[in-house]
Design brief:
Helix content is 28%, strand content 22%. By secondary structure, it is α+β, with helices and mostly antiparallel strands. The chain starts with a strand and ends in a 6-residue tail after the last helix.
Length: 910
């Protein structure tokens, strides 16, 4: 068979049933990605005779005799295609996993298709950007700025990996070819709750190509948590590598290791597994009721499960003042119960990795993780290995959103690599991503609030029931976070919290962007809106009267908690003004027919800039012989922009340009420690470590130059890649040569312990139209203002906000994991409705003018918090438009329609 790939002829025969995607990757074209293998996401897009196709749907043999173009061959002779350049100029990517497919589709569009991008891009999904930057690329917009030496911080500089992302040269987790690589597939439980009576491996081991089968009998019998935190005491120890009890449909039961994925899958099918079925419970309210089956009956307080007999991991109870009395005396009150659903992270690169034991006996794990250092710690503990005998690292990661702050695959990879002595690979399918990893925590939140006649908030109470699924993962931490900033953003003398996080026999919940705050904010901000309405006060003014101001205590029951949260800066007042002004300045709306109702809504959110209980980052920077610098950090890059910002920080401190900062990151072999890229810490914590290291090296450079010139170091300054001492200019390259001649290396270290912590604020506003006949919602205007301190990279930060709003809109309007008897019923993107180009409005983004006294060079975190106020603001706009308070998301048309029909009937048709 003959294939022409990127202008070159190949005479290869694909495997039986092999799709074009895997065939092209076997030929080394790693720019062809797997996001779904169902034709839903477009990450595998290639051009077939010039037309974009999803290569996962094309049998490889059907491409015989056709011309195939992958991202690597879009431009001839290793050049760059105009569309690739357009994506670079617009910086139309974040994690970049979707970018190759997106560029190929965009490059193929004719003028008619460009006029209808909603239809033209329906086959290509991006989870990160919110699509505005992609539209900018198609409109030839340049979003990139230049920066002279020493001025990088605060400029819209491009991502360092941009050229590799747009040409397909950047390497993600699975973009590697290894000799002798074995493949792992998991046999998973078909039952929500059962004891495993026996596993017969005989038939599986007889499958040609199968090398090994591992069950609970082959794995360490040690309890741990898949959640990764600096302090393990934040998580319940309730998980084993492989267990003899299954607690949800999709739980891993056995690992089959084989020469190919096909052989491993056949091995899984041949396993004979006998179960003793146990009673199951799927609703959290039923799980804590008397007589409910206990899901982890053997877990104890020592394992951080407070009441295993009632399926409760932890409870929170506390009160300031007297809420009941305050409600009784209030001029207006509101009470409502709000529910939020399971949501999948939807990062296009699934969980997985490659592992091997090298010649020195070191276990190497190349993983798609946000926390390589904490994964190493976990593996060393589980397998009784010295930490120096474990290396965990990641290349570029294809999205995370909190979902990769877990250890879902690294333990199986380590087990197989250690047992077989061969390199092994485990790459989850999209269906496994839905059914066997983690989700957002579904919550039921009852809020009670009261206010005086002058609009002063006098009472605020929340009752939260959080469903953590079959395992605790992040359940404890998410609950505390959900119950903190959502109510501590408001001054109120009487506050009360009652909350619990509960086991059910469902797919586990875990870390997800916002970490519990979107769920509780949905309820609390609705209550604020209702009180304002009852008093006839604008929602902006009501909040101005009641939000915390700089210097106010930040309080939520049950007690003062952590005392390291301070106002490094305060911009909430500006954010409220910016959104209100933007909504008032533009009241234009399209002409709408009689069946459309319009309304506006807003909501705010506060977030601490670092998780509590420790978050550590080390950085190291050294002067290279060519006068550039090598910067080593532990934090990972997965579209969060840390690679860009760290270079900007270092370049600014060292009076150089970002091109001269050579970055190495996210590899435990580099030394140091980094808790991980989560909780919006990549800039705020790790950036402080980089700043400390760079400023220390700057001082060393001045001292060294002063010694060379016999001058006082205080008289020396760094300027344009040199140290100026009096009238003498010494380039960094000269200093490197001089230091080497003396046997010295100019190197400095920095550290950040993640404390004290600051606070950041976001305010979201919407104008919407609701069709009272169908329940369809149209977003007419979307505005978000952010208090991000001095914005390190305005273009990049804007993209984080737009992406956060878009992702949150998906959860507010469309996305929902549907379960029946514990089984996920919609484990594919097409059934789940991941938000697409056509679904997303363009959000106006504004920044408060603040400078944080704690964050690096005045910056604050801004990755998670843009997500948090979206559902609440849209819910308030929906109430304004319809007069109906809808209390459950997503706001799907079929769920809105009954109440709309009851209130408004049907619009008369001509």
């Amino acid at each position: 068979m003959s294939y022409q790939v990127n202008g070159k002829d190949f005479f290869e025969r694909p495997g039986t049933g092999q799709c074009l995607r895997t065939f092209l990757r076997d030929l080394g074209h790693f720019g062809v990605k797997k996001g779904c293998d169902a034709g839903d996401c477009g990450a595998c897009t290639v051009l077939l005779d010039g037309e974009p196709v999803h290569s996962c749907l094309i049998p490889a043999f059907r491409a015989d005799g056709h011309a195939i173009t992958t991202i690597e061959g879009l431009a001839p002779d290793g050049g760059i295609h105009p569309m690739q350049q357009a994506f670079l100029d617009a910086q139309a990517f974040q994690c970049g996993f979707c970018t190759a497919g997106m560029i190929l589709t965009c490059a193929s569009l004719n003028q008619a298709q460009r006029r209808d991008l909603d239809a033209a891009l329906k086959g290509n999904l991006c989870r990160c950007t919110g699509y505005r930057a992609i539209e900018d690329a198609l409109n030839d917009r340049n979003n990139v700025e230049d920066a002279a030496a020493g001025t990088a911080f605060g400029r819209s500089l491009p991502a360092p990996a941009g050229p590799q992302v747009v040409t397909g040269a950047v390497r993600y987790t699975f973009d590697i070819a290894m000799e002798g690589l074995l493949h792992i597939k998991m046999a998973r439980s078909p039952h929500p709750h059962a004891n495993i009576r026996s596993i017969d491996k005989t038939a599986a081991l007889a499958v040609p190509g199968v090398h090994a089968v591992f069950t609970h009998e082959d794995a360490p019998d040690r309890l741990f948590s898949t959640a990764r935190h600096e302090r393990l005491t934040r998580n319940p120890d309730d998980t084993r590598v492989l267990d003899n009890v299954v607690r949800f449909i999709g739980q891993k039961v056995a690992a089959v290791v084989a020469d190919s994925e096909a052989a491993a899958e056949e091995g899984c099918r041949r396993l004979k597994i006998e179960y003793d079925i146990l009673p199951a419970v799927f609703d959290p309210a039923e799980a804590i009721a008397p007589g409910a089956p206990a899901i982890h009956p053997d877990k104890t307080v020592e394992q951080r499960v407070s009441n295993a007999s009632r399926n409760i991991i932890v409870e929170i109870h506390g009160e300031f003042g007297d809420v009941a009395a305050a409600l009784a005396q209030a001029a207006v009150t509101y009470e409502g119960t709000f529910t939020t659903q399971r949501v999948q992270h939807g990062h296009l690169e699934t969980h997985g990795g490659v592992a091997w034991v090298d010649a020195d006996g070191v276990l190497n794990v190349r993983s798609s993780t946000q926390t390589p250092f904490l994964a190493r710690r976990g593996l060393a503990e589980i397998f009784d290995l010295a930490p120096e005998k474990v290396r965990v690292f990641c290349e570029r990661v294809g999205g995370g959103f909190g979902g990769k702050q877990e250890m879902f695959v690294e333990d199986i990879l380590a087990l197989a690599a250690l047992k077989t002595g061969r390199p092994v690979k485990l790459e989850l399918t999209r269906e496994e991503q839905f059914t066997a990893t983690s989700t957002r925590h579904p919550m039921r939140v009852t809020v009670k609030a009261g206010a005086a006649a002058d609009g002063t908030l006098t009472a605020l109470q929340i009752d939260v029931l959080s469903d953590t699924g079959a395992y605790g993962n992040h359940g404890r931490s998410v609950l505390f976070h959900a119950c903190n900033e959502s109510i501590s953003a408001y001054n109120c003398p009487n506050k009360k919290v009652d909350a619990a996080v509960v086991y059910t026999n469902t797919v586990p919940a875990g870390a997800f962007r916002g970490y519990g705050l979107p769920q509780t904010t949905f309820a609390v901000e609705a209550a604020m809106d209702e009180l304002a309405r009852s008093l006839g006060i604008s929602p902006y003014d009501f909040r101005r009267r009641n939000v915390v101001k700089a210097g106010d205590p930040i309080l939520a029951p049950p007690g003062p908690g952590h005392d390291d949260v301070v106002y490094g800066s305060y911009g909430l007042d500006q954010c409220l003004d910016l959104v209100e002004r933007a909504m008032q300045d533009d009241t234009s709306a399209p002409e709408l027919s009689a069946e459309w109702l319009t309304g506006e809504g807003m909501a705010l959110t506060m977030i601490t800039t670092v998780p509590p209980d420790g978050h550590i980052a080390d950085a190291r920077i050294s002067l290279r012989e060519d006068g550039g610098f090598e910067l080593v950090v532990g934090t990972a890059e997965f579209g969060n922009g840390t690679s860009t910002v760290h270079r900007q920080i270092a370049a600014t401190a060292l009076a150089t340009t970002v091109e001269r900062i050579h970055l190495r990151q996210s590899d435990t072999a580099n030394g140091g420690h980094d808790t991980g890229a989560y909780g919006s810490t990549g800039t705020f914590v790790a950036g402080r470590a980089t700043q400390a290291a760079a400023e220390s090296l700057a001082a060393d450079l001045k001292n060294f130059a002063a010694a060379e010139t016999k001058m006082n170091a205080e008289a020396c300054v760094l300027e344009n890649d040199a140290v100026i001492c009096g009238n003498r200019r010494m380039s960094f390259a000269h200093l490197a040569t001089a230091a080497r001649a003396q046997g010295k290396t100019l190197i400095a270290h920095g550290n950040s312990a993640g404390t004290p912590r600051s606070v950041a604020f976001n305010v979201q506003g919407f104008r919407i139209a609701v069709n009272k006949d169908t329940g369809i919602i149209r977003i007419l205007k979307s505005v978000q203002a952010a208090d991000a301190g001095i914005v390190a990279n305005p273009m990049q930060c804007r993209g984080q906000i737009e992406g956060g709003v878009a992702q949150s809109l998906g959860a507010t309007l469309y996305e929902e994991m549907e379960l029946n008897g514990g089984r996920v019923m919609n484990p594919k993107f097409r059934e789940y409705h991941l938000i697409s180009f056509a679904d997303v409005p363009r959000t106006e983004v504004y920044f408060a003018d603040t400078s944080d006294t704690i964050g690096p060079m005045g910056a604050k975190s801004m990755s998670e918090s843009p997500y948090n106020p979206v559902a609440a603001a849209l819910g308030n706009a929906l109430k304004d438009a319809t007069g109906i308070r809808f209390t459950a998301v997503p706001f799907k048309p079929d769920r809105l329609f009954p109440a709309l029909h009851e209130k408004y009937g049907r619009t008369a048709r001509r």
